[in-house]
User: Fold these one by one.
Assistant:
Number 1:
Amino acid sequence: MPVHESEAIILQSYALGEGDRLVSFLSRTMGRMRGVAAGARKPKSRFGSTLERLSHVRIWYFERETRELVRINQCEMIESFLSAFSDYASSIALALFSEITGAVLPEKEASDANFRLLLLATQTVKRTGKCELPLAYFALWTVKLGGWLPSLDRCGQCGQALAANDPACFSPSAAALACGKCRRPGMRLVSPPALSLARKMVAERLDRLQDGVAADAAGARAAREVTEMMLDIIEHQIDRKLVSRELLESPA
Ligand SMILES: [Zn+2]
């Protein structure tokens, strides 16, 4: 049994048996994995708080040929995000980050881009205490990395350019944007600020966006609209509802 060492982010952990934990984690080099941390729920466990959700860690584990679950041997904290969970709004965004990552990434397929996105979004929430923009950015880039981002410039029906101030609409069932002329029942309007924010997100890094987007109610509303659109696309792709999404307040 060779021991593997990897940088990882903890996605979720569940109580298992008497004092163990079942841990889902995203390894930077190996992709999404699941393993058992024996004795992790016992007092004075050597794992400490390293297995808390979204902890950025260095992890050592054994792969067992005949079993799906690896055995987690040791875990060292690189950065903890426990403090960010104390804010309610942030905790919902963070829960969505881990739930979405777990839902969209296949097991054992490394994706450095998804790893960096998850880490960046989580660190931004912790550092700024704000979650609207990082959540929208995370959702949009998860969709883009998955190859599911519809054109933000052209109508998915007739191909006409979506001009900056024309009304556009979004079809959750088709996961696509359409122009005002192609609007059908069930599609909802996308505001020009939300469409423009989504376009900026494709082109700009999150830290630059943070300086450029109005940190007011209008900016938060546009970000929320982008988030709702992207979560619809993600749910369309994974073919189920995201549990943590129900905790998001409905858009104002
Ligand atoms: Zn059209």
Note: Strands lie at 3-16, 20-27, 31-37, 56-62, 70-79, 168-171, 176-179, 188-190.
Number 2:
Amino acid sequence: MKQFSLLLVLVAAFAVHTARAADKPNIIFILSDDLAQGDVGCYGQKLIQTPNLDRMAREGTRYTQAYCGTTVCAPSRTSLMIGQHTGHSPIRANREIGAEGQMPLPAGTFTVAQLLKSAGYATGCMGKWGMGMFDTTGSPLKLGFDHFFGYNCQRHAHSYFPKFLYNDDQRFDLPGNDGNTKVEGKGPIYAQDLISGETLKFIKANKDRPFFLYYSITLPHGTFQINDQGLYKDKPWTEQEKNYAAMVTRLDTDVGRILALLKELKLDDKTLVMLAGDNGSSFPPDSALGKRFDQAANGLRGFKRELYEGGLRNAGLARWPGVVPAGRVSEEPWAFWDFLPTAAELSGAKIPAGVKPDGFSLVSFLKGGPAPTRDYCYWELHEGASLQAVRWGDWKAVRNGPSKPIELYDLKTDAAESKNLAAEKPELVAKAEALMKSAHTDDPNWPMRDSKAGAKKIAAKKKKV
Ligand SMILES: [Ca+2]
């Protein structure tokens, strides 16, 4: 009898365990490289077709004030992975290391992939990494990802016809590709074909257990290279414009493939899909591309490498049928450093003592509730001058270098950040300065500076597009 009771207890315990595993939702975070709000139909784009993203917005929620970690790749992605804003995080700019790879995440970094792995999730990263080569402490394979596929190095990802890619840490050649990072680059193998295929394979392979897919899709980042201009082939546009539009539409198509597969595998109602760009538009609204695609239409100031809203706000979508309200448009802010606490609540995983995320769980917000209450959002960027920005309530302050004056904007009436109210509101400027001071921790890798050399480099980069 005793043995029978024990058996019952064990059976019950097993049932509870499997029920819990089955209850855990799959989490897919699709992070596009440089996709801007103004590129996407549901945000107002008229010429570039994005039917799947638009459908995702109809079937889920669209966020008009979803914020990136900061406004270039590596530090923005770091915020997403580790749950810290750029006043605390170890990576606060793109920094190239050696011939391939970026400054690695340091030893002891705790990522959202490690968190989800601890809760029994299969974890995969497909696309581009940019936070450390495989032989460093920043390797994705040492930071919680079971599987990696794509480009480790951001510079390598400038070619869409690269000479090689990585499957985990194993480099494999793509014969015939020229690896050219100019627009003329060509070859028989478009890297995104392989990366997209790998994401679908990963989902299929893990359909019976909870999984986390960090799909760090490289489109539509420059260099603007595409293997098929598709819908735009015969448009009276420049090659660059046709390529850019085709890249955004290709991204859309590949997101559609994922949504279709989730439906086919009956994983729709147990999978949260979030999508965002890692920074705002990569070109200014008054550039040729900006004008062609009317990037000024969303009325935001600035773009990539600036801490104005056009650089910081991303095309943020979430879809989870039956859980995330369909057709909702939220104007409340959230930021990349909220993702790790959100993943913790969704998975039931425990954030280890000593790991201190800056963000808040978005679970009730995703379900239709109000955004978490927070004191402020904060951003830094150290490419050239050290830029800082802080938002509290509807107030936003920007300082384009430690010795520069603080600019103050009221986002409620002036989302375009066109009217600097600093002179009229000295008490709010003082508050902004105090918030910037408290949010910023010194880091010898990222000294605060008004670098002229850096400013030139940024100006050169801006001129290129
Ligand atoms: Ca980017």
Note: The pocket of calcium ion is lined by residues 33-34, 73, 221, 278-279 (CB under 6 Å).
